[in-house]
Automatic annotation (TrEMBL):
Stored SUPFAM superfamilies: C-terminal effector domain of the bipartite response regulators, P-loop containing nucleoside triphosphate hydrolases
Ranges where the HTH luxR-type domain occurs: 829-894
Organism per entry: Oceanococcus atlanticus
InterPro entries (UniProt xref): AAA_22, P-loop_NTPase, Sig_transdc_resp-reg_C-effctor, TPR-like_helical_dom_sf, TPR_MalT, Tscrpt_reg_LuxR_C, WH-like_DNA-bd_sf, WHD_MalT
Gene Ontology molecular-function annotations: ATP hydrolysis activity; DNA binding
Protein name, UniProt field: ATP-dependent transcriptional regulator
GO biological process: regulation of DNA-templated transcription
One protein family per Pfam: WHD_MalT
Source organism, top-level taxon: Bacteria
Length: 896
């Protein structure tokens, strides 16, 4: 595909430079962050913007350009072109936008924006980004990018937006703060004097002043109308009669002048124009193919020289396009006067584009030509690449609305990828409907014998694989296990990548059912199948699931190792902004917190997006629990509670019951530790976790949570009964190899036995828990229980065969357990008490702006509570108490 949008070239045929449209001084010196040029088609917006760009470049300011069209509402396409524009402007946007489709597949446009925010904040030079034809953008996700860019981009980045309509993002904040300069129709209209200058540069004979005034009045100063008039007046016998012949609004003037212009052209030139107008942009090769005439491409420069509104799109003169309004007129006239010519040109041009490996542009052309045979076949051949390699989810879904059902049904793989695209786009119900319809189609095809048995079997394989993926994305434990197990048994000879993909789902199902050894065996087989392939996206899932399996089993070292391998895989093959990197950071943040390595835990939490448009159960659990615990550790328990509640709200919205229940159980534990027993009991009642489960159900999700919840509730009523009832669950965890869960239940049993005044049994169980904790690095599990565990720890004497736990015991008893264990601050060589994290440095630079805390939080995509937490850490590390003090200290240290 075309990797970048092209910048405009200013040529001799462009309108004159006009004094009242010079670049504003306030923008030139950087005091204004946004300028808008808004007017209907034909008012010279692009020309004015191009002149401003050249003026800035002449002044030594770095600039870049992005022009949009009607296909750029697809977020993946927009992100790719925006990345190209920023790279031309000197930003190393390779991480943020080059592989944006990977992030869009998993984390949405929010994840792309977060990465972009970080990279723009580190831009070392001033950059002005010109974005033309903003009115073409309709998609909410692309509008969200524009909204963030113009309102929250760092101060060293400025913008100029051109649009036919009001810019569809809020600009009130910039307007109030006098950071916005606006130009509209009145500024762009031509005066009599400017019209006289324009005509004198185009016409051999001088037009009378009265005729010039009449022309301006009749066109209302519309630049495109005046350009057309100049083109027609050049050969007119009676210029005054031409001026008198037309009047009315812009469209009527365009229709009149356009028809006159066409009447003055010979038939070959008229047909060439009709063909060129069918394409948004065209070069010599495409023109020759579309016209089926080898010399047609060579005539592009000739048409440009004749001032027929054919604009150069680059300084090399390779790519051209008609002025939008004139091009639309020529396109409609071509479709009306020569429909077969227009259709054939689109099809021939599409074949040329496909041969150039531009499937997106080629399919778009045959869709317009309604050549459904080519459209459906090419879509079937390219849909997987367009979804997975390029991330064009919305484009595929839009095409599927236009492609007649009878043609799409000829290629079931189109429906398969459409189902996956809708699932990734956050439409699970629609995805389910597509799969149900596809299953019905499969039955019809089988009954009609339209497909051979081998093709039906392949369709069954692909349909079942997609069903497994949907179950996995929806965290449907039973369906995951059933569908993926059946698939592996039924299709042992399926392609290796497909086999590995389904084994990812099967291993994850084993994880959900606490079958750790089985899951690890399956994930290892999947990894072997991916070796030697380019299935990097699926391999990243493999490593993420492996890390979750080890974490569920309580093997923190293996979990951290798998997570680090995942990050390295992302660095080499995908992008660290990909949501799969978030899985690795979530695992590592949780592990470091449990090991009481708080600084490292914060570093990884800072790398995780607070993106509520992405939800996967394990990621959601680890992210919000670890973030909440760090907030609590820093003394802001209320913000911690809010993090848990936010995670529950996301889980409920995506119907992830396992995540919602786990986060609610964490909230219950906090309420108990904080002494809010009535609230804790009410929460347990609402969750239906206030009844002891049957021992044989200890492995179920609800039962596993119930044991921990009921144990804490029973601690206050009958602690000895609580201790006894925990025994089956502890045994079950030991049998399943769930070391951390066993340790947690042992600690609960220690608390129960201590409350029941059974010190010997309590110390025996505590020793067991400490041995597990010492082996696997569990520290915070003990610390976070607070002072209630301290008396038992102080009395414990380890036997000779328990000395492996001695170091952990000393660590816990030498510190006041009631006070969280935090690293001792020591002044470093740069004057900081502790190094700032990457996110903290980003926030520190934002403190220089006039943004409020709420606006800074929105600009960097965190909640106000999270920002408050970061500010607390920043002030502590700088040794100051407030924002102004932080700025003074940062300046002293050269941090900003």
């Amino acid at each position: 595909m075309l990797e970048t949008k092209l910048c405009p070239a200013i040529g001799a045929a462009e309108p004159i430079v006009r004094a009242q449209l010079q670049l504003p001084e306030a923008f030139r010196d950087g005091r204004i962050s946004l300028a808008t040029v808004i007017a209907p088609a034909g008012y010279g917006k692009s020309t004015v913007m191009a002149q401003w760009q050249h003026a800035l470049e002449d002044a030594g300011v770095r600039t870049t350009w992005l022009n949009l069209d009607e296909d750029d509402s697809d977020p993946a396409r927009f992100a790719r072109y925006l990345g190209g524009a920023l790279r031309r402007g000197g930003l190393d946007a390779g991480t943020a936008l080059r592989d944006a489709q990977d992030t869009l597949l998993s984390g949405g446009i929010r994840a792309v924006l977060e990465a972009l925010a970080t990279e723009l904040s580190e831009l070392s030079h001033r950059l002005v980004l010109f974005i033309d034809d903003v009115h073409f953008v309709r998609g909410d996700e692309v509008l969200e990018v524009l909204r963030w860019l113009v309102n929250y981009a760092p101060a060293q980045v400025q913008f100029v937006l051109g649009s036919r309509e009001d810019v569809p993002v809020p600009l009130g904040r910039l307007r109030v703060r006098r950071k916005l300069q606006e130009f509209g129709v009145e500024a762009l209209k031509f005066s009599d004097e400017e019209t006289a200058a324009l005509l004198s540069s185009r016409l051999r004979a001088q037009l009378a002043a009265a005729d010039i005034h009449s022309l301006v009045q009749r066109t209302e100063g519309w630049p495109a109308g005046l350009e057309l008039a100049a083109l027609i007046l050049e050969g007119a016998q009676d210029p005054s009669a031409v001026v008198r012949a037309f009047a009315g609004n812009a469209q009527s003037v365009m229709d009149y002048l356009g028809e006159v212009l066409l009447d003055n052209l010979d038939q070959p030139t008229r047909e060439l124009i009709f063909v060129i107008a069918q394409f948004n942009r065209i070069d010599e090769g495409l023109a020759a193919a579309a016209c089926d005439a080898p010399l047609a491409g060579a005539r592009l420069a000739e048409l440009h020289a004749r001032n027929l509104f054919l604009k150069r799109m680059d300084t090399q003169g390779r790519w051209y396009r008609f002025h939008h309004l004139v091009g639309q007129f020529f396109r409609e006239q071509g479709e009306r006067q020569c429909p077969e010519l227009a259709r054939d040109a689109l099809i021939r041009g599409a074949r040329h584009l496909m041969a150039q490996n531009l499937p997106l542009e080629a399919i778009h052309c045959v869709m317009r030509a309604q050549a459904w045979d080519l459209a459906s076949r090419w879509l079937a051949e390219n849909v997987e690449e367009l979804v997975f390699s390029r991330g064009y989810l919305q484009t595929i879904m839009e095409w599927m609305k236009r492609l007649p059902r009878e043609w799409a049904d000829r290629y079931p793989e189109i429906h398969l990828q459409n189902a996956f695209a809708t699932m990734l786009n956050g439409q699970p119900d629609q995805s389910r409907l597509i799969l149900d319809n596809l299953a019905a189609l499969r039955q019809r095809l089988a009954a009609s014998a339209e497909l051979p048995r081998s093709r039906l079997d392949q369709l069954d394989q692909e349909l079942a694989m997609q069903e497994a993926h949907v179950a996995g994305l929806g965290d449907q434990m039973g369906d995951m296990m059933r569908i993926s197990s059946d698939w592996v048994q039924r299709w042992p000879q399926a392609p290796r990548v497909n086999q590995g993909s389904v084994r990812n789902v099967l291993a994850f199902a084993h994880k959900c059912y606490s079958q750790i050894d089985q899951g690890l065996a399956v994930i290892a087989e999947g990894k072997r199948l991916f070796q030697g392939t380019d299935a990097h996206y699926l391999m990243s899932w493999n490593l993420a699931i492996e890390s979750y399996l080890h974490l569920k089993g309580g093997d923190f070292s293996a979990a951290a190792s798998a997570a680090e391998q995942l990050l390295e895989h992302m660095r080499q093959h995908l992008s660290l902004m990909h949501q799969h990197a978030g899985h690795a950071h979530a695992v590592l943040a949780f592990v470091h917190y449990e090991r009481d390595e708080i600084a490292a835990a914060r570093e990884h939490i800072d790398c995780i997006s607070e993106n509520d448009s992405y939800a996967q159960a394990d990621y959601l659990i680890l992210h919000h629990i670890t973030r909440a615990r760090l907030l609590r550790l820093d003394g802001d328990a209320e913000a911690g509670y809010q993090s848990l509640l936010k995670g529950r709200e996301i889980a409920d919205r995506f119907q992830l019951s396992r995540a919602a229940l786990t986060l609610a159980t964490e909230q219950f534990n906090w309420l108990c530790r904080d002494g809010h027993l009535d609230q804790a009991h009410e929460l347990a009642r609402r969750l239906q976790l206030d009844h002891w489960p049957e021992p044989d159900k200890a492995v179920s999700l609800d039962a596993e949570k119930s044991f921990r919840v009921c144990a804490r509730l029973q601690l206050m009523r009958d602690p000895l009964d609580a201790a006894e009832r925990l025994n089956p669950a502890i045994t079950r965890c030991r049998d399943l190899g769930l070391a951390r869960r066993e340790t947690e239940l042992l600690v609960l049993q220690v608390l129960a036995l201590s409350a029941a005044e059974k010190p010997v049994q309590a110390q025996h169980r505590l020793a067991e828990a400490l041995l597990l904790g010492a082996e696997h690095g569990y520290v915070r599990l003990f610390v976070d229980e607070g002072e209630v565990l301290q008396p038992v720890l102080n009395r414990l004497e380890l036997t000779p065969d328990q000395q492996a736990a001695a170091h952990l015991l000393r660590r816990l008893t030498q510190c006041a357990v009631a006070t969280p264990l935090k690293p001792v601050a020591a002044a470093s060589v740069n004057g900081l008490f502790e190094e700032l994290t990457k996110r903290e440095r980003q926030i520190l630079r934002r403190l220089q702006s006039d943004l409020s805390n709420r606006e800074i939080a929105e600009a960097i995509f965190v909640s106000e509570g999270t920002l408050k937490w970061h500010l607390h850490n920043i002030y502590g590390k700088l040794g100051v108490k407030n924002r102004s003090g932080a700025l003074v200290r940062a300046l002293e240290l050269g941090l900003i």
